[in-house]
Design a protein that fits this description.
With 537 residues, the protein is α/β, with parallel strands linked by helices. The protein has three domains: 107 residues, Ubiquitin-like (UB roll) (Roll), CATH 3.10.20; 137 residues, Alpha-Beta Plaits, CATH 3.30.70; 230 residues, Rossmann fold (3-Layer(aba) Sandwich), CATH 3.40.50. The protein is 21% helix and 20% strand. The chain starts with a strand and ends in a 23-residue tail after the last helix.
Length: 537
């Protein structure tokens, strides 16, 4: 593979790469604002300027400039090499690029920083971008001097409502145009544009429109400063208090890679943001996926119930065992869930087939919805394919078939995972017993004789298989609330209460059992995962 030198470091590149693309791929940062690996090149911020050494025997291209003499204060003629934006500069074999090692580049970047901050308000104490703002970071790295301008700054509109999810602060905006390009190139809705010129520039919404397409939060996320803020996260938390885990979006079968940010002090989730994976979601997420984290705290069951009575978890497990004991296998139905991980479904499938002896397998899921041809998939479940793979050559039947079997008197007992249902479930009134393991309230919960509180996807680590067949791990962020436990752990406890030798104490125990099952799939180890650690731009 061809390569070039960047500050004496050999950087491999592919044909057509720019210098900043090649450097980004190997984890070398060239300072930038307007460039984004998933967007077209604008080259308007000039922060990524680099010096390119001329080939041997050829003079460097020099520009005539004026420099201030530090002793006399007079401006005198001088020369400097022509710098080039790394986001536009095509990589070439043997090229010698100087970024951190060039004093001319350092001077230029300091000047760019000073210009961007001339009219920038001192909003850092109240700005949601504080702690992850490139203006702050680059000021420390490439400027570090006080502002010299003493004139009154240019004032622009603040707290403009761009739409139901986004607020815009024109004074903070550096006109990098990332948001404009994202709306046009990725969301396919060119609703934003730039008006005026120079230091009067600001981003505006098309007349008669709002910023209301399905990727508005991603439009905010690509902003490198605090100009665009999300109503959902605005003034909610300081980023330096938050911790992150690698997660998989639960909104649909695309399985977007994400970071789930939470505060370990109060065990609260605060936001979902995209994690780069070029084979799944590239650098993006949709609004539904970025807001889906809130569901982990809503409509929760965190205690066991027998009928309408709240009981201890041990009492709930024993009641569930009593409800299922001595039932005829052909009259017992087991409902798997496309909303739960492979580990949860494998545990339930093992209990059903190997111990309870039933082959009456069904699946519950959210009904299909809208797809947009960008990221959102019509299947609104994160693990439909994973459940089908677990069941092998005999796929689980839909919930409608279970209701028909109940109506016909063929099924009298049901053990179900998850409370979601894509159809009317009044037929469940005919059951003798329904044991439900679920984190959330839902259509099935009202018919449950025994309910055991499962942990949410944010409270337990698990594997989810997207519609492409890619197994991806979603890591636990917060501790399970109250008596909630991972569903596989509740199923193991239920099996032991029934007298079976199910010794699953840790997730690794379940995965060890899955390793011997041809249909069971777990995510590859971290070293083999396709998604890198770093967040998307």
């Amino acid at each position: 593979m061809p390569s070039f030198k960047l500050d004496e470091l050999e950087i491999p590149f592919e044909p057509g790469d720019t210098v900043i693309q090649a450097a980004h791929r190997v984890g070398v940062d060239i300072p930038h604002y307007c460039w984004h690996p998933g967007l077209s090149v604008a080259a308007n911020c000039r922060m990524c300027l680099v010096e390119v050494a001329p080939p041997p025997g050829r003079p460097a291209m020099m520009l005539d400039v004026l420099r201030q003499d530090p002793t006399t204060g007079e401006y005198v003629p001088a020369k400097k090499p022509k710098l080039q934006p790394a986001c536009q500069l095509k990589a070439a074999e043997g090229m010698d690029v100087r970024s951190q090692s060039s004093p001319h580049v350092a001077e230029a970047r300091g000047a760019v920083q000073e210009m961007l901050l001339l009219n920038h308000p001192v909003d850092c104490p109240i700005c949601d971008q504080a702690g992850e703002c490139r203006l702050q970071d680059y000021w420390l790295e490439h400027q570090g001097t006080r502002k010299r301008m003493r004139d009154e700054v240019i004032h622009k509109p603040k707290a403009q409502v761009f739409g139901p999810t986004i607020v815009y602060d024109a004074e903070r905006c550096i006109i990098c145009t990332r948001c404009v390009r994202f709306c046009e190139e990725v969301a396919k809705d060119p609703v934003l544009d730039v008006r005026e010129r120079g230091n009067l520039n600001e981003i505006v919404v098309s007349p008669g429109r709002q910023l209301d397409h399905g990727y508005t939060l991603m439009t905010e996320f690509v902003c490198p400063v605090g100009a665009l803020t999300a109503v959902d996260f605005r003034f909610k938390a300081r980023v330096w208090f938050l911790r992150s885990v690698r997660s998989v979006c639960q909104g649909c079968a695309t399985g977007c890679n994400a970071f789930l940010d939470y505060d370990p002090r109060n065990q609260t989730l605060y936001r979902h943001r995209p994690r780069e994976n070029l084979q799944v979601n590239q650098y993006w997420m949709c609004d539904h996926g970025m807001l889906d984290y809130r569901r982990a705290h809503e409509d929760r069951f965190v205690s066991a119930y027998v009928g309408e009575e709240e009981v201890t978890l041990e009492a709930g497990v024993n009641a569930a065992a009593s409800a299922l004991r001595e039932v005829e296998p052909e009259r017992l139905a087991v409902v798997l869930s496309a909303q739960h991980s492979n580990e949860d479904n494998f545990a339930l499938l093992t209990l059903a087939r190997d111990y309870l002896g039933t082959g009456q397998l069904f699946i519950t899921n959210k009904p299909h919805g809208e797809a947009d041809g960008i990221l959102r998939h019509a299947d609104k479940n994160p693990n439909t394919l994973g459940v089908e793979q677990l069941c092998g050559t005999t796929p689980p039947r839909p919930l409608q078939d279970l209701l028909a079997a109940i109506e016909a008197g063929q099924i009298t007992h049901v053990l179900a995972l998850s409370s979601v249902a894509p159809c009317e479930v009044e037929a469940l009134q005919r059951l003798k017993r329904l044991v439900l393991i679920t984190p959330f309230d839902g259509p099935l919960a009202g018919y449950a004789d025994v309910l055991l509180p499962a942990a949410t996807w944010a409270e337990s680590t698990g594997t989810f298989v997207n519609f492409k067949g890619m197994a991806q791990e979603s890591e636990r962020a917060i501790r399970p609330e109250a008596d909630a436990r991972p569903a596989w752990k509740l199923i193991g406890a239920l099996g032991r209460a029934l007298g079976y030798a199910i010794d699953w104490q840790r997730l690794s125990d379940v995965r060890l059992a899955m390793a011997t099952d041809p249909g069971a799939v777990v995510a590859p180890p971290p070293s083999a995962r396709m998604a890198p650690v770093g967040a998307a731009e």
